[in-house]
Amino acid sequence: MGKRGSYEIKKSILMAVREKPASYAELERKVNTGFRSIKNNSEELSDYGYITVERVERDPANGRPSFKVKISESGRSFLNKKGK
């Protein structure tokens, strides 16, 4: 199995958050890639307006700061156009 491209990772992130918001750590497990890749691709998707990234000062799971990724309406539209 070869290295996945950034398009595939971005699409996987959108698919993972379409039902409910997820933290970077949850996305690492769901998308099966590292933190830096999740962070960089999420920032790019946010710049395009497909997701929003919200800083959470105190994560309920561990009490530390984290980030929640939520899909936007344009992100949903993109997935619908791609037939997913």
Give the CA-CA distance, first to last residue: 23 Å
Cα-atom radius of gyration: 13 Å
In CATH terms, the superfamily is Winged helix-like DNA-binding domain superfamily/Winged helix DNA-binding domain
Task: Encode the helix/strand succession as letters.
Answer: HEHHEEH
Helix content: 40-55%
Principal-axes shape call: globular
Using the coordinates shown, work out and report the CATH topology: Arc Repressor Mutant, subunit A
The total of helices stands at 4
SS class:
alpha+beta
CATH architecture label: Orthogonal Bundle
In percent terms, what proportion of residues is strand? 15-25%
Strand elements, count: 3
- Count up the domains: 1
Overall pLDDT level: 92
Low-confidence stretches: none
| CATH class category name | Mainly Alpha
Give the spatial strand order of the biggest sheet: 1-3-2
**Sheet with the most strands?**
3 strands, antiparallel
